[in-house]
Design brief:
Layout lengths: L19 H13 L12 H8 L3 H13 L3 E4 L2 E5 L8 E5 L2 H4 L7 E11 L2 H7 L6 E10 L6 E9 L16 H9 L5 E10 L2 H7 L6 E10 L5 E10 L3 E5 L9
Parallel strand pairs: 3-10
Antiparallel strand pairs: 1-2, 4-5, 5-6, 6-9, 7-8, 8-9
């Protein structure tokens, strides 16, 4: 008896239940590895649902994610077409909720550079908007969109020292605030985010492979728990041309 060969248009592997972010990340890796040629088509939604053990709505959301990143073009009633293996348009973060605010962290490769205990001097306190002399754990992470690609973000994440037990789990797909929630039974109730134009200093420029003084997008994100207590401050530093934010907001009532 001969065993059937795996279908050529669908990478082999056991089905597994996955969220849309994990499915999107896997499809991106497959596209970049050449599983489907540019101009070719992805497997059908039904085949992808079988492969990942996921529902059709989950598959459609994953496809929407990689379409926004420029990897595919979707057509009504037909399979999605591979548009590019390495899109040039930079990473696009589509924001619709707190969970999607940092979803780029799940769709990028991360490298943990350093962790250290630090006491905020006046300069750092102003930068983080915290009290001078307060103690923090600093986590430095470099994120890239694909293997061998230029970094899209150098993140400096500051958390309270009481959360140090999450450090062994940081170099993965989870965001730091979600690790804090899981390990300390907390709920991140409120997130504040500010974005400003800045220039790359020597340390940031070296990590992002840009010239010192190059324009960057500095994103400061602050996380508060249910008691309105600040538990994390993140500084995301994005080089020009490698990252965009797309925001979708809905109105609940009419003015007047």
């Amino acid at each position: 008896m001969t065993q059937d060969a795996p279908r050529p248009d669908l990478p082999s592997g056991p089905p597994q239940a996955s969220g849309y972010r994990e499915i999107a990340a896997t499809l991106i890796r497959d596209i970049q590895a050449g599983a489907w040629p540019v101009g070719g088509t992805l497997p059908s939604e039904a085949d992808l649902a079988t492969r990942f053990g996921a529902g059709r709505n989950t598959i459609r959301e994953a496809l929407r994610q990689i379409q926004e990143l420029g990897f595919i073009q979707r057509r009504r009633g037909a399979r999605s077409v591979i548009a590019a293996a390495n899109p040039d348009g930079g990473f696009v973060n589509s924001v619709r909720s707190i969970e999607s605010l940092l979803h780029y962290a799940k769709l990028t490769r991360s490298k943990l550079l350093a962790t250290e205990h630090i006491r905020a001097d006046d300069a750092l306190a102003r930068r983080l908007e915290v009290r001078p002399g307060s103690d923090w754990l600093r986590i430095a992470i470099l994120r890239s969109g694909r293997a061998g690609g230029d970094p899209i973000c150098f993140s400096e994440i500051y958390i309270e020292p009481r959360f140090r037990d999450i450090l062994p789990y940081v170099e993965g797909e989870l965001t730091v605030y979600s690790l804090i929630e899981q390990h300390h039974n907390l709920l991140c109730r409120r997130v504040e985010q500010e974005t400003e134009a800045a220039a790359a200093d020597e340390g940031v420029a070296e990590r992002l492979n840009v010239v010192v003084g190059s324009p960057i997008l500095l994103v400061r994100t602050k996380f508060y728990d249910e008691n309105n207590h600040l538990i994390e401050v993140g500084l995301g530093q994005f080089p020009a041309g490698r990252y965009r934010v797309r925001m979708s907001l809905e109105r609940r009532t009419r003015e007047g």
